[in-house]
Every structure is written in structure tokens, then in C-alpha cells.
Amino acid sequence: MQDSLAIWKPGYRLIWLSRSAWDREIVGSNPAIPTNMKCECCGKEILSIFGSGRFCSRSCANTRKHTEEQKQKISRKLKRLQDKFCLDCHTKLERRNSTGYCQICCRKHKKISDIQKEKLRKIQLEKVQNGTHKGWTTRNIKSYAERFFETVLNNNKIKYNREKKVGKYFLDFVIGNIDLEIDGKQHKYKDRKESDTIRDEFLRKQGYFVYRIAWNEINTNEGKQMIKDKIELFLDFYEFITQRW
Questions:
Q1: Are both 46 and 86 inside the same structural domain?
Q2: Is the dihedral of CA 49, 50, 51, 56 positive or negative?
Q3: Are residues 57 and 75 in the same domain?
Q4: CA 27 from chain center: how many Å?
Q5: Are residues 126 and 78 in the same domain?
Q6: Shared-domain flag, residues 175 and 130
Q7: Mean pLDDT to the nearest integer, 75-88
Q8: Could you list the residue range(s) of the whole structural domain that residue 46 is in?
Q9: Which residue has the higher pLDDT, 11 or 195?
Q10: What is the pLDDT of residue 115?
Q11: 61 or 220, greater pLDDT
Q12: Do 208 and 176 touch, CB atoms closer than 8 A?
């Protein structure tokens, strides 16, 4: 630690000092470091010297007021830092992220043995049994896309069931033997596509026709026309299936 030095005196503890704190405390008129130093921000007793010795932590140090010159120096330093993006989905990451992946993608790259997976599975089952965890349940909050298609189906006088459970899956809209799914952007991810394929294959074996509609924003005229075309295609499909069966 070339930029920091340590001092110790009888009755005091060993303390690491930054170069500036060393010059101020040792070279200055008061070389002793009392044990009852307090943080200028929160007032807590400082257990060790942090930086200049005025604050107990980084969060307290960030509360101090900077001069315009200091602000410009910090701004220049931050601008030199490049933004980080997830190596898989390319979403923007926090600068302190060191894994290279976002929280969702990190799970795929984290290596967990089969023994660990089985151990975690048993822990979750115990939580469900003793009532500390509800387990997998359907959502109580409807998305805007789901409310939108409820209105579409009601306007076309099409009867449906919501969130019907088949096996371990919950179906968005069950219309006879049709499973109408309204897919958000999360269904575009590779791992989600793989799970959707497994799900759809299971439902087909149960006698369901799976019809997926990719939701798009309807804030523009182009978006409204796109969703209108998708609705018309589904209504044609629904009419064909009902006539056939």
C-alpha cells in the first residue's frame, strides 16, 4: 500500500492513513489520533480512518459539498468511463457490474451442480409445505395487453376462460380448444423461446391449438394498424377452427 501508511501508539489502535491524512495528522501539530473521532455527516464514531478521515463511509463522504472545480474534475472522470452492456442481451449495466451479464443472463452462466439444484429444490418444497412460500401461482395483476384483448373478445362476443391451469402451465385465454397467448417482449429471448416451444408441444398433446400474438405498442397509427391486422388474423383462425370442429 504505497499511498497509505500506518501508525500506532500505546492506548490507540493501528490505523491506516491516506497520504493526505498522514501529512495532516503526523506532520501537523497533533500527531495523536483519538479514538472518539466522529463522522462529519452522521456523527458516528469512526472506527477506522476512511480517506481524509472526516467521514466514516463512502455514502457519508458523498454528502459533502464540492466546489465547481471539483465538480468539473469528477464530471470529466465519469465521461471517460465507458458504458457497460450485457454480453448476451446487450442491456445497459451499472458501472459497478463486474460479471459482464445482467441479472437475468447471469443465471444462465452461473454453474450449479445437479446436487445443488436438488438441494435448492427441496428447500423450496419445504417452504411451500410449511406455508412460508406460496409456490407458483397465477398473477392477480393483469397487463394492459391482457385487458386490451379481454375487450376485443368481449366486443366480438367470444366466450373464454382466463388463466386456466393445464399441467404446470397457466393459459392466458382458453377459447374452446384454443390457447390464445399474448406475448410481451420477454418472449423474444432465446431461453424463453425454448421454454415456450416445450410448453406449446405439451399443450398440443393435450388437444389445444396454441395461437400466439406478439404484442406491440399502439401509441402510433402504425402500431394500431399492426395490432388490428393481428386481431383480424386471429378472428379468421377462430372462425376456421369453430367451423372445422
A1: no
A2: negative
A3: no
A4: 49
A5: yes
A6: no
A7: 79
A8: 4-64
A9: 195
A10: 78
A11: 220
A12: no
**pLDDT tens readout for residues 87-116:** 888 888 887 787 788 877 777 776 666 777
| DSSP of the chain | -TTEEEE--TTS--EEEEHHHHIIIIISS-----TT-B-TTT-PBPSS-BTTTTBSSHHHHTTSPPPHHHHHHHHHHHHHSPPEE-TTT--EE-TT--SSS-HHHHHHHS---HHHHHHHHHHHHHHHHHTS---S---SSPPHHHHHHHHHHHHTT---EEEEEETTEEEEEEETTEEEEEE-GGGGSHHHHHHHHHHHHHHHHTTPEEEEEE----SSHHHHHHHHHHHHHHHHHHHHHHHH-
Mean per-residue pLDDT over the chain, rounded: 77
Report the predicted TM-score, pTM, of the whole model to 2 decimal places.
0.46
pLDDT digits (tens, 9 = 90+) for 25-71: 544 444 444 455 778 888 887 655 556 667 777 778 777 777 888 88
- Count of domains in the chain? 3
My answer on whether 161 and 196 are in the same domain is: yes
